[in-house]
Specification:
Elements (H helix, E strand, L loop, with lengths): L2 H11 L5 H15 L1 E5 L2 E8 L2 H15 L6 E6 L4 E8 L4 H7 L3 E4 L2 E4 L11 H15 E4 L12 E6 L2 H12 L6 E5 L2 E6 L2 H10 L3 H50 L8 H12 L5 H8 L3 H15 L2
Antiparallel strand pairs: 1-2, 2-4, 3-4, 5-6, 7-8, 8-10, 9-10
Helix pairs in contact: 2-3, 2-5, 7-8, 8-11, 9-11, 10-11
Length: 313
């Protein structure tokens, strides 16, 4: 099961109690995937869900809120994503009343028009706003997290997919009020509202009330940080080894030059001893060589630098 599906199931597992929040949830779903149509000179709306239980839940909410029976649910297949789809139709005499109450439609004088804005009276209460965005995410949201098998290379990504800029920009502003930073971009005729930061995605999960998802991403963030710290230490260690080898080769080269010039035997006793041990113990670090000579690291470094300087004269 992919993470998006797991997250949406967690959202849906927490039943909504208040009718105002049920309305907002339905509105979020419908604004995410709804398509208006006219039948027998009356407005109607089709919207799509990808779960049979969710389709049943929507039918229950319409019955409770509006005494409206969903009589038409078309079952099809989304071949692109290899899943079933359930298309729900709201039509008939009560359709305009329901769609206006859910702010899909608004009154402009005596005329009913399509509402281009997502957030209005229906989402003024924080609980209703969260329910609306839950419905919106279930309809058009997705999320991918690093896999347990490949934590080091897979990225974090959450997004909402919109057909127009206005709802994407409005949602971006709403989320920012709850410390959730997102960005928008256009792709293939759609507007994507996306979040790449693991911390910000965790904030989104908390906003949606998905506590298990919060724990999941927290665990992944810790695992990734541990891997990154290990890689940094490994890279640092490799860099230190490389520098140590390079320094040792310079020291040995300098000592051999002094030998060829017959200068080594004329140097002070401590420099001769240092040169002799450096040639014999080429695999030793400076600290190990200093301990063997019974001197400090800085003292030994001074001697080795002196040998290099003499070799250049």
């Amino acid at each position: 099961m992919n993470f998006s599906k797991t997250l949406k199931q967690e959202i849906l597992s927490k039943r909504i109690k208040d009718n105002c929040c049920k309305k907002s949830f339905l509105a979020g779903l419908m604004r995410g995937t709804g398509q208006l149509f006219i039948e027998d000179d009356q407005l109607g709306l089709d919207f799509t869900v990808y779960d049979e239980n969710l389709a049943s839940l929507c039918a229950e909410y319409f019955r409770v809120l509006y005494d409206y029976e969903i009589r038409e649910v078309s079952v099809g297949n989304d071949h692109l994503n290899n899943r079933e789809i359930f298309e729900i139709s709201i039509k008939g005499e009560k359709a305009t009343e329901i769609l206006t109450d859910l702010e899909v439609l608004v009154l402009d004088g005596e005329e009913v028009i399509v509402n281009t804005h997502l957030y209005g009276e229906l989402t003024k209460k924080e609980c209703c706003l969260k329910s609306f965005i839950k419905g919106l995410f279930v309809a058009v949201g997705s999320c991918t997290l690093p896999s347990n098998e490949d934590l080091a290379s897979t990225g974090y990504h959450a997004q909402f997919t919109f057909s127009h800029e206005i709802p994407a920009e409005e949602t971006e502003r709403v989320l920012s009020k709850y410390d959730i930073t997102s960005k928008t971009t256009k792709r293939k005729g759609q507007v994507l509202l996306y979040i790449k930061s693991a911390e910000q995605i965790k904030n989104l999960f908390a906003f949606l009330g998905a506590s298990l998802a919060v724990l999941n991403i927290t665990d992944l963030m810790i695992s990734r940080e541990m891997i990154n710290n290990t890689n940094r230490r490994t890279n640092c260690d490799m860099g230190n080894v490389s520098r140590q080898i390079e320094a040792t080769m310079k020291q040995i080269e300098a000592i051999k030059i002094l030998q060829k010039k017959n200068v080594l035997s004329t140097l002070k006793q401590e420099l001769q001893l240092t040169a002799k041990l450096r040639l014999e113990k080429q695999d030793m670090s400076v600290i190990e060589l200093a301990n063997l000579l019974g001197v400090s690291k800085s003292c030994l470094n001074h001697r080795l630098k002196k040998l290099i300087e003499l070799s250049k004269q």
